[in-house]
Amino acid sequence: MYCYSCYAMLVELTSLLDAVQETETKMVEMSALNHLMATHILRQAQQVEQLYDQAVGATHNIDLGNKELSKAIQRNTCSRTFLLLFLFVLTFSILFLDRYS
């Protein structure tokens, strides 16, 4: 038969073992959650890098678009000047031909 102090020690050790097992279970859960969080953070980092690359590409495309718009505005100005000059010459040619006919 067990003595009272041995029984008290057994109860205390059993209680301590339960606490250690509970702590171990919580640590395993925390480890799994930590792994899950690390996975999500890595995925987010990849998405942020992808968004950054897309933003840089979009900025480059906007710069190219602005240059093309500037060229189009210049061409439009030249075309307008040429058209006005052409109409002016045509008008005076018609007036000249009308006067000397």
From TrEMBL:
Q: In which domain of life is the source organism classified?
A: Eukaryota
Q: What is one GO biological process annotated to this record?
A: retrograde vesicle-mediated transport, Golgi to endoplasmic reticulum
Q: What is its main location?
A: membrane
What is the name of the protein in this document? t-SNARE coiled-coil homology domain-containing protein
Q: Where does this protein reside within or beyond the cell?
A: Membrane
| Listed transmembrane segments | 77-97
Cellular-component GO terms for this entry? endoplasmic reticulum; SNARE complex
Tell me which UniProt keywords the record has, alphabetically. Answer: Coiled coil, Membrane, Protein transport, Transmembrane, Transmembrane helix, Transport
Bilayer topology term:
Single-pass type IV membrane protein
Is Nucleotidyltransferase among this UniProt entry's keywords? no
Q: Which family does it belong to?
A: Belongs to the syntaxin family.
Keyword Coiled coil applies? yes
> Which residues does UniProt call coiled coil?
none
